[in-house]
Write the structure tokens for this entry.
Amino acid sequence: MGNVCCAEPKPDIQAKRSMDEEFFKLHVDAGHMNERRRSFIDRLYTTLGDETTLDAADMAAAFDSDAHPDVVAGNRSASDVRQELLEALAAGGGPVSRNLFEDYYDLQSITIERDEQFEALVRSSWIGLVRKRAAARKAAAA
């Protein structure tokens, strides 16, 4: 009868192993932003405010979720994506910490392959609030 333990796996088992490895890479290994993305998110957080001024509800209201890939693809509504953001940013129970903000984008980063795409998505989601903050700083300096 031959040595069963050393036989080549059946093709369907081989395919499942391959899919499991890809799933693991996508959901575990790739869950951390590279330095370019982390730096971009860090600069955005600093531009938006700080841990004493960033309110989760205000941020969620200003967040433009229409550009989110799931909304664009028709998989989710803009309000669902906005609610997810609010829940993630409000997890600390007070003002939005830098860590909560980075953690949210660490998870979002998993689904976006190219750095340029990631930056464009994030930029389009926050451009309204960035402009509002810049105008307020300019007015305060005048």
The chain has a mean pLDDT of 81. The chain is about 65% helix and 0% strand.
